[in-house]
Amino acid sequence: MFPRPIQDQSLLRQRLYKIALPISLIVWLLPMIAIVATAGRSLSDINYGNYWGVPTEWAFVANFTAVFDSSPILIYLMNSFIITVPAIIGALVLSTLAGAGLALYKFKFRFFIFALFIAGNFVPFQILMMPVRQLTLDLGIYDTYWGVILFQIAFQTGFCTFFMRNFIAELPFELVESARSEGVSEWKILIHVIVPLLRPALAALAVLQFTFIWNDFFWPLILIQSDELRPVTLGLTTLKGQFISSFNLLAAGSLIAALPPVMMFFAMQRHFIAGLTLGASKG
Amino acid sequence: MSDLSVGAPVPVRRRQSFFRRNKLVITPLLFIAPAFAMFSLFVIYPIIQSIALSFTQWQGIGPKTFIGFENYRQLWHDPVFWKALVNNIYWLVLFLLAPVIGLFVALFLNQKVFGIRLVKSLFFFPFVVSQIVVGMIFTWFYDPSFGLIAAIIEPLGWTIPSILADENWATIGVIVAGLWPQTAYCMILYLTGLNSVNPEIVEAARLDGAKGWWLLVHIVLPQLRAATFIAIVVTIIGALRSFDLVAIMTEGGPYNSSNVLAYYMYDNAIFRYRVGYAAAIATVLFMIMNVYIAWFLMRLLKSEKGSH
C-alpha cells in the first residue's frame, strides 16, 4: 500500500492525520458549505449586509418554499427529467447494440468505426453548434424537448459505445461461442446471453449519463428558446436575474438544481466511479 | 438471369442462406447501424458542415457567400482571437495542476481510517455539481463587497481586487473555479489507480530502503500510468472546452480579457451574426483538439494490438 498505512506510523502522526482530515475536508467543501449556509440565511440578514456572519435566524424552510412559490423551478426540474431520462435510455440502447457489434465480431474497419465514436466524444461542442441548430430547425424539433434529447442520445452514444465495447470485450467469449454452436441466433445471444451480464455496466453508465445530461448547459442554451421548456441549469440563469439581490433564494435554487445528481451520486457511488474510471483501468 | 425463371421459393431460400452464411458480418453492421446513423447525423456531418461554413460569410439566415480563407485571414488579425487563444493556453497550463493536486489528494486520502469512505465521497462532490452552480458560487466568493474571500482577508487588513472585473485577474479567477471539480475528477482516477498498485513491489522497494519521493516517482507513478494518461486527456479536453464557467462568470469580459475560443465562437455566432467567422474559430479549436484526439487514438490502437 502506498503511502505507508497511517496505523504503522508514530502516534503523533496518526493524531495529526486525524486532525488534518476534517480540516482539509472543510476547506475543500467551503464553497458548498457556504452555499448551504446562504440558502438558510434570512432576507433581513442579506439586506443588512450580514452575508457571512452568524445568521440571526435560520430560514431554510422559508427560503426553499419561496423559491418554489416565486419561480418556475418546479417546471425547470421537470424539464430536466423529461430531457434526461429518455436521453439516457436512448444512448444505452444504441450503445449496447453498437458495443456488442464492435466487441463480438471481427470485420473490416472495426477499429476505424470504434475510433470515430471515441473521437466524436472529444470534439469541442462549438464545432457542432450551428449545423446542429440548423438541423433541428430543418427537422422541426428546434425549441422542443426532442431537439436536446436526440442530440444528447447521438452525442453520448459515442462515449457509451466506447464503454460498452470495452466491457463486452472483457466478457467470457466462450459463452457466445457455445450459444452459437447450438444454433442460437445472434440477436437472441445478445438479448439472453450478453445483456444480463451487462447490468453493472448499464448501471454505471446510467448514473454517469444522468449527471452529464442533467448538468449540461450548452445544448439547451443552443436548442431551446422558450422559458417553459428550459431545464434547470438554464433556468438557474433566469433565476439569477430574478433573484438579483436575494442571494439566499439563489443559493436555495442552486441547491435544488444540484440535488438530483448529488443524490444519484451518493446512492449509486460505486457505479458512478466505475463509469468514470473504466477508461483508466485499461490501456 | 436464369435464376429468375426457377420460381419464387428459391430466391427466398437463397436470401436466407446468404444472410446465414454472412451473419457474422451482417449482424454487427445491423447492430452498429442505428448508433452510427445518429452519430453521423448529429456529430460527424455537422463537423464537416462547420468546416465548410468557415469558408463562407453567413449571418445565420439568408445567403451564404463563399469567401475562401478570408475568415481565417481576419482571425489572424483579430486581437480578441489571439487573446482567447492565449487564455486557452493559460487554461491548459493551469488546468494541468488538476492531475498533480488530484494525485496528492488521492495519496492523502488513501488510508484506512474510520469514516474515510465518506470523506472520499465528499471530496468528490464538486464534480457532480453543475458547472453553472460552481460558477455562481465562485462569483459570490470573489465579490469584493460581499464575497467570502473579502470577508476573510479584510479583517487581516488586506484588500482584494474585484477579481472577475479586473482584466488581470478574471481569467485566473474563472480557471480556479474550474480547477475545483477537475481536481476532484483526477483524484478519483488516482484513488482507483492506487487500489491496483501492487503492494508487494512497494514492500520490496521499501525493504531495499526506498521511501518518500523516490518510492513515489520510481515505483508507484509508473504503476499509475493509465490513470495519469486518462487524467491528462480529460483535463486537456476540459480546458479546451471551457465554456460554461466563462459564460456564467464573466461572459468573456472585462474587455474580452477572460475570453476563450469556445466562448468567442458562441459570441460571434449568436450575438454578432458572424456564423462563418464563428465556424472558423470552431475549426481552429477543433484542429487543436485533434492533436489530443490523435494522441489518444494512437495509444488506444497500440494497446488494442498488444492485447490480441
At a glance:
Chain A has 15 helices and no strands. Chain A has 283 residues and is mostly helical.
Could you characterize what this model shows?
Chain A has 283 residues and is an all-alpha fold. Chain A has two domains: 6-67, no CATH class; 72-281, MetI-like fold (Orthogonal Bundle). Helix content of chain A is 77%, strand content 0%. Chain A has 15 helices and no strands. In chain A, helix 4 (60-70) crosses helix 14, helix 5 crosses helix 11 (199-215) and helix 9 runs antiparallel to helix 10. Chain B contains 16 helices and two strands. Chain B is flat. Chain B has a two-stranded antiparallel sheet with strand order 1-2. Chain B has a domain at 78-273: MetI-like fold (Orthogonal Bundle), CATH 1.10.3720. Chain B is mainly α and 308 residues long. Chain B has helices at residues 2-5, 9-21, 23-53, 70-76, 79-95, 97-109, 116-128, 131-142, 148-153, 170-195, 199-207, 212-223, 225-241, 244-249, 261-271, 275-306, and strands spanning 56-57, 65-66. The chains are: A mainly alpha (283), B mainly alpha (308).
Ends distance of chain A: 22 Å
Could you tell me the mean pLDDT of chain A?
A: 90
Oligomer: heterodimer
Radius of gyration of chain A: 24 Å
What structural class do you assign from the helix and strand content of chain B? Answer: mainly alpha
The CATH homologous superfamily of the domain at 78-273 in chain B is called MetI-like
Q: Which outline of chain B best applies? A: flat
What composes the largest sheet of chain A? none
Helix content of chain B: over 70%
CATH A-level architecture of the domain at 78-273 in chain B: Orthogonal Bundle
Q: How are the strands ordered across the major sheet of chain B? A: 1-2
Give the percentage of residues in beta strands of chain B.
under 5%
Shape of chain A: flat
Count of strand segments of chain A: 0
Residue runs with pLDDT of under 50 for 5 or more positions of chain B? 1-10
Keywords (chain A): Cell inner membrane, Cell membrane, Membrane, Plasmid, Transmembrane, Transmembrane helix, Transport
Function (chain A): Part of the ABC transporter complex UgpBAEC involved in sn-glycerol-3-phosphate (G3P) import. Probably responsible for the translocation of the substrate across the membrane.
InterPro entries (chain A): MetI-like, MetI-like_sf
Subunit structure (chain A): The complex is composed of two ATP-binding proteins (UgpC), two transmembrane proteins (UgpA and UgpE) and a solute-binding protein (UgpB).
